[in-house]
Design goal:
heterotrimer; A mainly alpha (546); B alpha/beta (289); C alpha+beta (197); A: mainly alpha; two-stranded antiparallel ribbon; C: 197 residues; alpha+beta; five-stranded mixed sheet; four-stranded antiparallel sheet; 27% helix; flat
């Protein structure tokens, strides 16, 4: 295409090279790549921590970790790293940055320099979090950081303060990123791409960005109050000074619950893209899908106290939060059924991205239904702080969200790098990882039912059996993860050249109209969106002008 | 001897057997019911309180529903794999809407949620509202042990220290046994007041359907009724520092007579702990030092 | 697409983020006002309490609970286990506190009521809530609480079943950090075990 050649010519003039290309980058693709690399490094660090935890928990007694403060620090760091430095950077910073501008026909994000600082703030936050574990005794508070345990009396030393700083810095990066995405999506869509023609992945990032904008400042406020309680003599959370530890819990979970939707909504968007492409059909019920995501986002803000059912809040309060939490199952169910209906009647190729998408659908349902169980305050009293909760959130986050990330990587790596992944090896990696995570997390439901609490380095001997099985699952998962890194290496070093559109007729979004690898600058002239989409009310499918 | 006679014999010998078995609380580990997990357990511990029994029933309902949903989705996916793979179905359909279907899969989940919400709220109000109670047990969490106080029984106060592995006697499970367990009468409705002296802990006994945060500066209330005599174990259920995993809860439920005997012994044994005579029946002036 | 419109967008969104930050800083005040205004979660009424209600025939039992934080070397207990009174009837009860140490020590108390739904009907006219009390070494004082339980308790369908209310106080030492086996000592202990074992 002429426009492609012109773009290639321009590249040689403006394209920075060397370390400055990356450190000073204002290019959404390069920044997206850096986020994905950061996420992979963090995944190895957070993963090593979890394997160490499972190594200790394989048998009753303390075999490898005798310093139980260190165990608590591992649990804390593992949680923070996975949530803030693996899943969020990969899906929002990584795939969001790469593909939102491409999908809406924009040449880059609205604020490319702010995009750069968002990335470096996130990277700095990761370093600060690691430091928090290395200074003093480390923060042994869990990612929930409840005072008084996190207050200066019970965690003297700088560890918790480093952790607070890490979250402030990373949070700032995310808030700026959220502003960037919202402004980009509202203002920079190509002519003809109405909101109701946007791909669902773009919708998912838009809703996620609003959740980030509204929820992260509340975390920042709560963290600042903890910081001043610890260091400047305030008493927001200290009873002796007239404060209340429960205030922290309300503030934290007011952020914390939307946070889990921040994690899963981009995954929903990715799954919609993959399912539509490999079924060779438009997504069933596009409008319902978009509105379901918005409903999940909105309702997600008014259910936070289901994390606080045993704190002594009143019975009527608990009844409200039970009902509100149950309601979220409705829009979520709509999405699951819509994906199934998309596949129904399709002509499906079961390539690696589609395997991950189908795995996501089933395992997200499995994890989601235990969430429906936990939503009920009356029965939550038997599950709160047990391994049943650990099983639930790992199914929806560590399995489902990670499946979406793997699926996205396989789906888009050809576009990002110009090289395609090896299909056979990828399918094998899927199966090893699938078996691993299920052996790892399914038995944890049994442990929770049987009464095993969470965040413990040693347990009564009766819980030994399923703990051993779970640890074996962790080992298999580790193999599956290492296989993935091998696939990455193999793809980037020796993968076959990827076509602009390796997926055929089902790939209808704009990123498949640019070459692979996508040139440094794309959409320098905005495509004009016309034809097809309008009569059907928009499926996120566009046909760029020839 | 007929079966009838054998049962008769068994019934008659029961009181003698039980009397022999029931010693002073803290010595016999496995008398009557046992509220503890079993190896390779895949389900709840047995229920020995009305709240836990109701939880079992509600969970049974939930399990049927969620298993159905998971199997339904699996079945649909399996069918899709078989029927709509690209070889079997080379031409994809263009269907992207079906109003009836979309309405159905909105309405049906709502109905299922209502079916869940009704027994759910019933359970919540039964467990969350303390009924008329026979006695009060005051529980205080510390790093890293529990202490107990009986304001209705002469202010008996004692610490319940976890027993280190080296000091365990046979029959005492590791990480679950304490030197002074909580003792309550069988069949008594107990109001439990929970608070903490330092960080947030959580007092939990799964087989009795108990779990309540122990928060400093705040009194939380819960309740239970042990329906059978026995020993019931629990573990602290809120991260509270380095020994969070080793501050267990041990509850013994005794018959009324045995409980009264324990009260008498405990008043003597723990006399030096008593904060003061709120109960006029006990002597003991405020020992100002 | 214009950069002015984009900048305006960004400004508005930053304002939203700043507003949420402001709300979270304002939350302690909001929290306190809401709890005290509605008696939510067991907060008894202590401000602007004017006793003008008549008494009713219905009775309620009020029991008393006391806690002392272990950093405060005081003995603190209720002078009576419980009282029976009619709704609306004003009652005076006492707690006694004694400084068991050889230094003058200041303590301050927090309180709540269970069941928490009764909080809105539990009105304290005079109490030692949140005023600092300083006791000389060995000094013992009697601290009065004057309260009544509003007859609304019997009329409100959600609280009609309440027959017993427990009032709980906890005394703290506000001037120093609580002193007990904090993590540092315990961590040193477990690390010693690891080093030695």
């Amino acid at each position: 295409m002429a426009y492609g050649a012109a773009a290639a010519h321009d590249e040689h003039e403006h394209h920075p090279t060397g370390w400055k290309r990356w450190v000073y980058s204002t290019n959404h693709k390069d920044i997206g790549t850096m986020y994905i690399v950061l996420s992979m490094i963090a995944a190895l660090v957070g993963g090593l921590m979890s394997w160490y935890i499972r190594l200790e928990l394989a048998d009753p007694g303390l075999q490898f970790i005798h310093d139980t403060q260190f165990y608590n620090v591992l649990v804390t760091a593992h949680g923070f790293i996975m949530v803030f430095f693996v899943v969020m950077p990969a899906m929002i910073g990584g795939f969001g940055n790469w593909f939102v501008p491409l999908m809406i026909g924009a040449p880059d994000m609205a604020f490319p320099r702010m995009n750069n600082i968002s990335f470096w703030l996130t990277a700095a936050g990761f370093v600060l979090l690691i430091l928090s574990a290395l200074v003093g005794d480390g923060p042994g508070t869990g990612w929930t950081v409840y005072p008084p345990l996190s207050s200066i009396a019970y965690h003297p030393g700088p560890s918790v303060d480093f952790g607070i700083l890490a979250l402030h810095v990373a949070g700032a990066g995310s808030i700026l990123g959220a502003i960037n995405f919202i402004v980009t999506i509202f203002n920079m869509r190509a002519p003809g791409m109405t909101m109701h023609r946007m791909p669902l992945f773009v919708w998912s990032i838009l809703v996620t960005a609003f959740l980030l904008l509204l929820a992260l400042p509340v975390l920042a406020g709560a963290l600042t109050m903890l910081l001043t309680d610890r260091n400047f003599g305030t008493h927001f959370y200290e009873v002796a000074g007239g404060g209340d530890p429960l205030l922290w819990q309300h503030l934290f979970w007011f952020f914390g619950h939307p946070e889990v939707y921040i994690i899963i909504l981009p995954a929903f968007g990715i799954i919609s893209q993959i399912v539509s492409t490999f079924s060779k059909k438009p997504i069933f019920g596009y409008l319902g899908m978009a509105y379901a995501m918005m409903a999940i986002g909105v309702v997600g803000f008014v259910v936070w106290a289901h994390h606080m059912f045993t704190t002594g809040i009143g019975v009527n309060t608990r009844a409200y939060f039970t009902v509100a939490t149950l309601i979220i199952a409705v829009p979520t169910g709509i999405k699951i059924f819509s994906w199934l209906a998309t596949m129904w009647g399709g002509s499906i190729d079961f390539k690696a991205p589609m395997l991950y998408a189908m795995g996501f659908i089933w395992l997200f349902v499995l994890g989601g239904v235990t969430g429906v169980v936990l939503a009920n305050a009356g029965i939550d009293l038997s599950f709160h702080d047990t391994y049943y909760v650990v099983a639930h959130f790992h199914y929806v986050m560590a399995i489902a969200a990670i499946f979406a990330m793997f699926g996205a990587w396989y789906y888009w790596i050809g576009k990002m790098s110009g090289r395609q992944y090896p299909e056979g090896l990828a399918k094998l990696q899927f199966w090893v990882f699938f078996v691993g995570v299920n052996v790892l997390f399914f038995p944890q439901h049994f442990l929770g039912l049987a009464g095993m609490p969470r965040r413990i380095p040693d347990y009564p001997d009766v819980y030994a059996g399923w703990n051993m099985v779970s640890s074996i699952g962790a080992a298999i998962t580790m193999v599956g993860t290492l296989m993935f890194f091998y696939v990455v290496f193999h793809t980037l070093m020796a993968g076959k050249k990827a076509a602009a559109n390796p997926w055929g007729a089902g790939a209808t979004t704009l990123e498949w109209t640019v070459p692979s690898p996508a040139p440094f600058h794309t959409h320098e002239e905005m495509p004009v969106i016309g034809g097809g989409g309008h009569a059907h009310g928009g499926h996120g499918q566009v046909k760029p002008a020839e | 001897m007929s079966i009838r006679d054998m049962i008769r014999r068994l019934q008659l010998s029961m009181p003698i057997v039980c009397a022999a078995l029931i010693g002073f609380a803290g010595t016999a580990a496995a008398e009557g019911a046992l509220g503890e997990a079993r190896p390779w357990q895949m389900y709840y511990q047995d229920a020995f309180s009305p709240v836990m029994k109701e939880i079992h029933e509600f969970h049974a309902l939930l399990l049927v529903i969620i298993t159905g949903i998971v199997l339904l989705v699996l079945g649909i996916l399996a069918y899709i794999i078989v029927r709509f793979n690209s070889r079997r179905n080379p031409v994809p359909s263009k269907t992207a809407h079906n109003t009836l279907l979309e309405v159905a899969w909105t309405i049906v989940p709502v109905i299922i949620l209502v079916v869940i919400a009704i027994p759910s709220l019933k359970l919540l109000y039964n467990s969350g509202r303390t009924p008329a109670y026979d006695m009060t047990l005051k529980v205080t969490g510390h790093q890293w042990y529990w202490s107990y106080n009986y304001p209705d029984h002469g202010d008996i106060t004692f610490d319940s220290i976890p027993i280190p592995e080296a000091d365990l006697k046979p029959g005492q499970p590791r990480l679950l046994s304490v030197d002074n367990p909580v003792v309550v009468p069988v069949g008594a409705t107990v109001q439990v007041l929970v608070n903490s002296d330092d960080v947030i802990h959580n007092w939990a006994v799964p087989s009795l359907g108990l779990k309540k945060d122990a928060t400093p500066g705040r009194l939380n209330e819960t309740w239970f009724r042990a329906d059978v005599p026995g020993v019931f174990y629990g573990m602290c259920s809120e991260l509270c520092g380095v020994n969070h995993y080793f501050m267990p809860i041990e509850v013994h439920a005794l018959s009324k007579t045995d409980f009264d005997a324990w009260v008498t012994k405990a008043k003597e044994q723990f006399a030096s702990n008593s904060r003061s005579p709120v109960n006029m029946a006990t002597s003991g002036a405020i020992a100002a030092r | 697409m214009s950069s002015r419109r984009r900048n305006l967008n960004a400004l508005v969104l930053s304002g939203v983020a700043a507003a949420m930050l402001g709300v979270s800083f304002w939350s302690p005040t909001l929290y306190r006002l809401f709890c005290q205004g509605t008696g939510y979660e067991g907060t008894p009424k202590t401000e602007n309490v004017v006793h003008s209600t008549q008494t009713s025939a219905a009775q309620v039992t009020v029991r008393f609970d006391a806690n002392v934080n272990s950093a405060l070397p005081w003995r603190f207990q209720p002078a009576q286990r419980e009282v029976h009174l009619r709704l609306g009837e004003e009652t005076l009860i006492h707690y006694t506190a004694a400084n068991l140490s050889d230094q003058p020590i200041t303590g301050t108390a927090t309180f709540n009521v269970v069941p928490d739904k009764a909080g809105v009907y539990f009105s304290k006219l005079e109490c030692f809530c949140f005023t600092e009390q300083t006791l000389a070494p060995g000094q013992e004082v009697s601290m009065p609480v004057v309260f009544y339980v509003d007859p609304g308790l019997a009329e409100d369908p959600t609280t009609r079943d309440v027959s017993t209310i427990t009032l709980s106080y906890t005394f703290y030492r506000p001037d120093i950090e609580p002193k007990q086996p904090d993590n540092t000592a315990a961590i040193a202990g477990t690390r010693a075990v690891q080093a030695g074992g």
